[in-house]
Structure formats: structure tokens, C-alpha cells
Design brief:
There is one protein chain. With about 500 residues, the chain is α/β, with parallel strands linked by helices. The protein folds into 3 domains: about 35-170, no CATH class; about 175-280, Rossmann fold (3-Layer(aba) Sandwich); about 305-500, no CATH class. About 45% of the residues lie in helices and about 10% in strands. It is built from 15 helices and 11 strands. It has helices spanning about 35-60, 65, 75-95, 110-135, 140-170, 185-195, 230-240, 255-265, 305-325, 325-340, 370-375, 400-405, 415-420, 465-480, 480-500, and strands at about 175-185, 205-210, 225-230, 245, 270-275, 285-290, 295-300, 345-350, 360-365, 425, 450-455. A 5-stranded parallel sheet has the order 3-2-1-4-5, sandwiched between helices. The protein has a two-stranded antiparallel sheet with strand order 6-7. Strand 8 and strand 9 (about 360-365) form a beta hairpin. Helix 1 (about 35-60) packs antiparallel against helix 3, helix 3 (about 75-95) crosses helix 4 and helix 4 (about 110-135) packs antiparallel against helix 5 (about 140-170). The longest helix has about 35 residues, at about 140-170. The chain is globular, with a radius of gyration of 28 Å. It is found in: Membrane. Its EC number is 2.7.8.-. GO terms for molecular function: transferase activity.
Length: about 500
């Protein structure tokens, strides 16, 4: 019996021209995912409120007569109209013009914050131009305070809104985009695995459409249904999706991707291309079209230059300041360790560092002094794979040591390694040196200094498999940037407070 698609019995609609809207105002409405509409409405209210609050703070800090217009006391109504209505509306218009409300950039990545910052520069330039053109006498202190305060408040509000959105996506399964993956089964499963690692991204694969026939998936268990030989748009409607992700080699077939894009125009369905080039971040990838052929140009990783010098300077300064600030805490921890188990306060172990050089890492001791002798009897209880040995309830760890591990306080002495240039604040974790030379892809971790924290630590720590930990470390090496380091340091705070994966 032939399967009859439910959409086949609907009255036929007039075909739309290839990619040409019916009028200049025509715009396809999304069929399923509309989470961005209320979210954008909330952002509009937050941005407007942030602008009003920043203006109010600036006016309160300075005398109103000298705060904005010099003649504000003569016309207070106009002054307050500009401060609390026209300026906030101007912010919203410029934010919109800079794509700060575009759903493609909301909730993930740094593009949203970059566009807000770009809008702030545009607002500052616009205010300066208008003041010059109208010969308005403005207080630079107040205007500067209002603009800078607005930028900081908008960034804070959007960060908090993003945290709420991520929580809703992780626990409620709403505010997401439902995707149909198009490609061969291995390529589709690779994309499925990648997007499933980050539920906060809001991408939920619901079906796979095979380009090489259904026989390629026969007898293979898949987490989502597999289809083949179907009309893609009909399949999208059937499974309730709103996004198509073209995976790997399917995106390189001549004319095929273009025909899919034509077919989707006017349907309100998003089209995403997932090339075979994986674990390469956006800043390294540039599109250079040549005669209509979009070429992806991949830059080399930035492992030297001024940015690296800035990273080293930041590491040394932060480590020196941190050691001085944490000295009383170090003394308290040392006393707790000596009371728990007589022996050395610090644990020194050889680790492999930058370019394969071996150094001795500093850590607070969390195990009994005979821990190494008792290791042989516990090898068969190892709960991790790869080059590490981990047990959640390790009997060699004393009570104070469990607290130090759970709170990550045992890692703080590694600031000494950072001060000496053996480690960095952010980087791949240094692995033990007694396992011999690193082979294969693992050696690439040695291109940068190991770190106290890193992408591995903020993504699950000991809960991750060895292969996943290596993948994250290699991703960090290939896509390192100073802004990425600051982002990982910020995420580390939340991970440490949550005590996730620490044992």
C-alpha cells in the first residue's frame, strides 16, 4: 500500500515564483518555531528599560542643569522627553539595524554581544553628530555615563535572558528549532552528536533524510527516524520541523543545495549547511566567493603574536595577584590537611607541558600519604577510560581532601606554575608524564601551555569520556583566542560553584 502524505489531499496552492516574493512587503511566517517572537519582545522591553535606567543614573550623578542640555532648567519637559523616550527609542532602532534582534544570533555565541557593542558605537557617533549639527551644548560626562551605562546594562540583561532561555531549553524542551538532517547516515549522525552535546543551542534533530538510499541504514539503530526518497518539504511538514540541515557531502553536490534553497523559499523553513569541516570555529573560517562559488578559507590557529603575549602577561599578573590575595586561605587549607593526615601539604607530580617539556605540578594533597602504594589494588575499579584514573568514592582521599576536590581548591597552588610560566590560567589539563610519549592527535595538546581550567573542565570534567575530553582540548588548541579564554574563566565560576564532575 502506498503511503499517502496528509498534505497531498489538501487543496493545491498556487506555485510561488522561484525565490521571488509576491511583493516588497511579503515575508514567510515560520510554521512551527515561534519562540523568538516573545523572546525578542522581552529583549525590547529589557533594552528600553536599560536605556531609561542608565539615563536616570547619569542624571542623578550630575546636576540636572549641567547633566544634559545646559538649558535643561528652562525646558525640563523637552529634556526628559529626550532622556527617557527619544534616546531609548533611538537605541532600539540602532540595535535593530545592527541585527541585535535577529533570531540567528540570539541565545548562542558572541555575535549577539558584538552587535550590541557595535550598536553602542553607532549610538555614540549619532549623538555626537546630532549635537554638532544642532549646536547643542551637552555635558560629555553625563552623555558618556549614560551611553556606557546603557551598554553595560543591556549586555547584562541579555546575558541573564540567555541564561533563562538555556534553562528553558535544557529542562522544558521548548524554545527550540526542530531539524531534519539531510545527507548520508554517518554525516547525519556526526551532526546529530554535535548538536546533542549542547542542548542550550536549541537545535533538536527529529528526522534523517538519506541521500544515498534507505538501504544504507538497514539494520542500524538510530535515535531518530530515518527516511529516504521523500520530498524534503513534505517530510519537514510531516515531522513538524522548521529547519533543514544539509550535512557533509550533500552540500557539495552541484546544484542540489541551490535547488533545496529554492524549494524552501516562501515556506518559512530555515536552511543550515553543516560542512564536513568540523571543530573549526567561526573566526577561522572566511567565505570568499569566486564566480558564484563560495569557497571556505580556513586560517591557521593563532598560536603566536600579540594575542599570545597579552595572554602570558595576563597569566603572570593574575597569578601573582592571586597568590598574594589567597595566602590566608592557603594557610587555612594547609592546617586542615595536616590535621587530617600528617604529611606534606603539597602534592608534586611530573606532568607534560608545552612542547613536551616535563614539569612538576603544585597541588594541595588530598590523599593519604600511602595513596600510591594502594593504587595497585584499585586499578580494576577505575571509572574512566584513557590516561586518567578516577573513582568517585576513592578510599585514598581523606575527608578534608574530598571537600578540596569538590570545591576545586586543591588546584589553587597551580598559580605557582602559572607564575613560573609552566602553565596558563586556561588551557588543556596537564597529563601525567609517566605514561610515556603522547601518540596521534593527543600530541597536539602540547602546542599550548596546559591550564588550571579549560574547555574540558567547564564541559563536564571527570564525567566526560577520554575521547570527548581530547576532542575538547584539541578544539581549544585550534580555536584559541583571548576572548575565548575570558569566556572559559567566566564559565569556570559556575562550574566550580555547582561542583559538577568534581571528584
Amino acid at each position: 500500500m502506498r503511503h499517502v502524505d496528509s498534505f497531498e489531499i489538501q487543496p493545491p496552492t498556487a506555485p510561488q515564483p522561484n525565490g521571488v516574493p509576491r511583493s516588497a512587503w511579503a515575508r514567510a511566517r515560520r510554521r512551527v518555531s515561534r519562540w523568538h517572537r516573545p523572546y525578542v519582545a522581552v529583549l525590547l522591553l529589557l533594552d528600553f528599560g536599560a536605556t531609561v535606567l542608565a539615563s536616570w543614573i547619569a542624571i542623578q550623578w550630575f546636576d540636572q542643569a549641567a547633566a544634559g542640555f545646559r538649558d535643561a532648567d528652562k525646558d525640563p519637559t523637552w529634556f526628559h522627553t529626550v532622556s527617557y523616550l527619544l534616546l531609548p527609542l533611538g537605541w532600539l532602532v540602532i540595535l535593530w539595524a545592527n541585527g541585535a534582534y535577529d533570531r540567528r544570533y540570539l541565545g548562542l555565541g558572541t555575535d549577539e554581544f558584538k552587535r550590541v557593542t557595535r550598536a553602542a558605537v553607532a549610538v555614540a557617533a549619532s549623538v555626537s553628530f546630532l549635537a554638532f549639527a544642532t549646536k547643542t551644548d551637552l555635558s560629555r560626562y553625563t552623555v558618556g555615563t549614560a551611553l556606557l551605562g546603557t551598554l553595560l546594562l543591556i549586555l547584562l540583561a541579555r546575558y541573564l535572558a540567555r541564561m533563562v532561555l538555556h534553562t528553558v531549553r535544557r529542562h522544558g524542551g521548548t524554545a527550540t528549532q526542530r531539524m531534519v538532517l539531510v545527507g548520508t547516515l554517518p554525516e547525519a549522525m556526526e551532526v546529530y552528536t554535535a548538536v546533542s552535546r549542547s542542548p542550550s543551542a536549541g537545535l533538536v534533530p527529529v528526522a534523517i533524510h538519506l541521500t544515498d538510499g534507505y538501504a544504507a541504514a538497514r539494520g542500524i539503530q538510530t535515535p531518530i527516524p530515518v527516511y529516504a526518497g521523500r520530498d524534503i518539504l513534505s517530510l519537514v511538514r510531516e515531522v513538524g520541523a522548521d529547519t533543514i540541515a544539509v550535512c557533509g557531502s550533500a552540500s557539495t553536490e552541484p546544484g542540489e543545495l541551490r535547488r533545496i534553497a529554492w524549494q524552501l523559499e516562501g515556506s518559512g523553513v530555515d536552511l543550515i549547511v553543516a560542512p564536513q569541516l568540523t571543530d573549526i570555529a567561526g573566526p577561522r573560517v572566511h567565505i570568499r566567493p569566486i564566480e558564484g562559488l563560495p569557497l571556505l578559507h580556513v586560517e591557521e590557529p593563532t598560536l603566536s603574536g600579540p594575542a599570545l603575549l597579552a595572554k602570558n602577561l595576563l597569566d603572570r599578573c593574575a597569578a601573582g595577584f592571586g597568590l598574594l590575595l589567597l595566602l590566608p586561605l592557603f594557610i587555612a587549607i594547609a592546617l586542615a590537611i595536616r590535621i587530617s593526615d600528617p604529611g606534606p601539604v603539597f602534592f608534586r607530580q611530573p606532568r607534560v607541558g608545552h612542547e613536551g617539556r616535563t614539569f612538576r605540578v603544585w597541588k594541595f594533597r588530598t590523599m593519604y600519604v600511602d595513596a600510591e602504594q594502594r593504587l595497585a589494588s584499585l586499578v580494576d575499579q577505575n571509572e574512566t577510560d584513557g590516561m586518567l584514573f578516577k573513582i568517585k568514592n576513592d578510599p585514598r582521599v581523606f575527608a578534608a581532601g574530598r571537600f578540596l576536590r569538590a570545591s576545586s581548591l586543591d588546584e589553587l597552588p597551580q598559580l605557582i606554575n602559572v607564575l613560573w610560566g609552566e602553565m596558563s590560567l586556561v588551557g588543556p589539563r596537564p597529563l601525567p608524564a609517566d605514561d610515556g610519549d603522547f601518540l596521534g592527535d593527543v600530541r597536539r595538546r602540547l602546542l599550548v601551555r596546559p591550564g588550571i581550567t579549560g574547555l574540558w573542565q567547564v564541559s563536564g570534567r571527570s564525567d566526560l569520556s577520554w575521547d570527548e575530553a581530547v576532542r575538547l582540548d584539541l578544539y581549544y588548541v585550534d580555536n584559541w583566542s583571548l576572548a575565548y579564554d575570558l569566556s572559559i574563566l567566566w564559565r569556570t565560576i559556575g562550574v566550580v560553584l555547582a561542583r559538577k564532575g568534581a571528584y
